[in-house]
Amino acid sequence: MDPKLLERRLTLMSIVTVLIFALLTGRLAHLQITEGEKYEKMATENRIRLLPLAAPRGDIVDRNGKILVTSRLAPVISVVPMDMVDPEATLARLGEVLGYDVREIVNKRMQRLEERKEYRPYTPIRIATDADIVTLTKIAEHQTELPGVMIEEQPVRDYILGDVGAHVFGYVREIDREELKAWRDKGYKMGDLVGKTGLERVYDQYLRGEPGGQQVEVDVDGRPIKVLPGRQMPVPGHSLKLTLDYDLQKAAVLGLRAMMEEIKEEFPTQAAAAVAIDVRTGGVLALASEPSYDPNIFTKETIPPDDWASISDSIWQPQLNRAIRGIYPPGSIFKMVTATAGLESGIIRPEDTIVDRGVYWRVEPKKCWKAGGHGVVNLTRAIAVSCNVYFYDLGYRAGIDKLNQYAALYGLGQSTGIDLYPAEAAGILATPQWKLEHFRELGLSQPEPWQPGETLSAAIGQGFSAFTPLQMANYIATIANGGTRYRPYLTSEIIAPDGQLQRKIEPQVIEKLNLDPENAAAIREGMHLVTQGEGTAAYYFQGFPIPVAGKTGTAQNPHGADHAWFVAFAPYEDPELAVAVLIEQGGHGSSSAAPVARRILAAYFNLAEAKVSTDIARETTM
Question: What class does CATH assign to 246-621?
Answer without folding.
Answer: alpha beta
